[in-house]
């Protein structure tokens, strides 16, 4: 386009920004920035990539400071150093346009991919942590649930460790359902008193994948970058939903459920147990063509785009209706501007 710069000059930065922010597809914004060097500079200097990312995923707004000031997320191949204002804007543009394309546009309730380990298990594998990911209350003819070992002290906590679908995931709420022992007298419900959630990443490269009892704390093998407040759990046989105060960007892909306090004693042996039927994590995982690489133990990571895992590249994706309308509008403005210039030149 010979007059691509005239569009912004004619309308001014404020109106131009409002027009461009009508785009809803991150790929369209990338296309716009490739029209010319002046458009590319305008998109970067006005933070349009960031604005679109926060428009699509407002859950990220709470961690903007961490992303930009603490360099929580970087892009592959970018060297970390002190940068001037323009270079920082360019780096943020790369990060936010990637994030805007990376997360699943739909909120999912199945963000957990694997049950890793429980702090204790009463009868393995019949009462394994893996049962908490089963969609139904029964497997064949037996009940599906996890059970802790019994304790005399009701204050003894338990933990359940899970691996999320992707190494980076926006988590908004977690669902936990206590187990009701329908085969025991009185149909007791073995809930905990409170529940708390941690999210983070592995510290060590290898970890034994076992659901058997272990006295080793997961804190020795994981770094928890987020810890939720404690939520009270009611002693009811229902899926209890715990909405986090703010959406959490889990980097590393691991979530720990802390079950604090025991409320139900088993009549048979007089010991306190905690039993859980279902655990769900609700949020937005990364799309398959994106992944992260952990950079250090603080939780910093590099966001990677893997086009070979996706079905289509940017160039093969069709223009959206919004982009077509924008291009038609811009072309009309350019024609109008050019005609106005020609009329003005004739007058002189």
TrEMBL record:
Source domain of life: Eukaryota
F-box domain: residues covered: 13-54
Pfam families named in the record: F-box-like
Protein's recorded name: F-box protein At4g00755-like
Protein's organism: Gossypium hirsutum
Gene: LOC107947294
């Amino acid at each position: 386009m010979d007059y691509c710069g005239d569009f912004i000059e004619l309308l001014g930065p404020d109106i131009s920004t409002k027009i461009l922010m009508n785009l809803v597809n991150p790929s369209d914004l990338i296309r716009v920035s490739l029209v010319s060097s002046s458009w590319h500079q305008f998109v970067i200097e006005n933070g349009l990539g960031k604005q679109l990312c926060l428009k699509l995923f407002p859950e990220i707004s709470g961690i903007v400071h961490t992303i930009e000031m603490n360099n929580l997320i970087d892009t592959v191949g970018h060297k970390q150093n002190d940068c001037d204002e323009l270079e920082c804007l360019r780096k943020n543009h790369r990060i936010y346009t990637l994030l805007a394309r990376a997360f699943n546009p739909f909120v999912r309730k199945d963000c957990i991919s694997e049950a890793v380990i429980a702090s204790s298990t009463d009868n393995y594998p019949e009462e394994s942590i893996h049962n908490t990911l089963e969609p139904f209350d029964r497997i064949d003819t037996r009940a599906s649930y996890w059970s802790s070992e019994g304790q005399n002290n009701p204050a003894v906590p338990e933990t359940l460790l899970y691996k999320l679908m992707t190494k980076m995931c926006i988590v908004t709420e977690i669902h936990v359902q206590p187990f009701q022992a329908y085969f025991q007298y009185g149909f007791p419900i073995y809930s905990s008193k409170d529940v708390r959630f941690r999210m983070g990443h592995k510290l060590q490269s290898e970890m034994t994948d076992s659901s058997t009892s272990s006295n080793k704390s997961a804190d020795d093998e994981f770094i928890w970058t987020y810890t939720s407040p404690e939520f009270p759990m009611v002693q009811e046989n229902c899926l209890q939903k715990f909405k986090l105060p703010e959406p959490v960007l889990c980097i590393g892909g691991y979530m720990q459920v802390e079950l604090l306090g025991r409320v139900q004693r088993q009549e048979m042996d007089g010991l306190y147990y905690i039993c859980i039927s279902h655990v769900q994590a609700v949020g937005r995982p990364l799309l398959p063509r994106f992944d992260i690489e952990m950079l250090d133990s603080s939780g910093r990571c590099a966001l990677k785009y893997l086009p070979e895992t996706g079905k289509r590249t940017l160039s093969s994706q069709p223009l959206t209706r919004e982009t077509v309308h924008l291009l038609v509008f811009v072309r009309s403005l350019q024609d109008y501007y050019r005609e106005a210039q020609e009329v003005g030149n004739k007058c002189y």
